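User: Teach me something about this protein's shape.
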Amino acid sequence: MSRLYTKFKDEIKQKQKDLHPERNSMEMPVLKKVVINCRIPDAGTNKDSLEVATKEISVITGQTPTVTSAKKSEANFKIRKGDPLALKVTLRGTNMYDFIEKLFNIVLPRLRDFKGLKTSSFVGSGNYNMTIRDQTYFPEIDLNKISQIRTIQITLVTSTSSQDRAKMLLSALGLPFEK
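Assistant: First, the predicted structure itself:
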């Protein structure tokens, strides 16, 4: 069991109940899932690149990613229908809390000139999007085996539609926002 999950269950939920006693406990915002995307531009032509990226993402997340492919052909981008485009992983439960704990405590402080995440990255539905421009910030990646720098997009999906309540939840979990 993740330390962050037990902290959420024991402390954070109780603080939310104390702040809003008029609300039902089922209305309290929770983190539902974390979606991780990694686009691979040359996946259609270079199968080795797709395999290496799959290994890297599975090492980072602890789950095997699914390959997302093009839904239609686009001549301007030299993409054919069915070509692989990206990798996607959806984390839930203890895997999600383990990943979030690693992201907040290890990866984000490693970013160059990191002063906190912007609050403008909230989507209207209470979800938070962030982009990490380099996969080498994750401690599981072996720097000697890196062939290409990849961008990883992370979406934190909450159960609330309110941006303020989602921000309160994520900051209670330890997400460092700009001041």
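Now, about its shape. The helical segments are 3-19, 47-61, 93-110, 163-173. The first helix runs from residue 3 to 19. If you'd like, I can walk through any region in more detail.
User: That's plenty for now, thanks!
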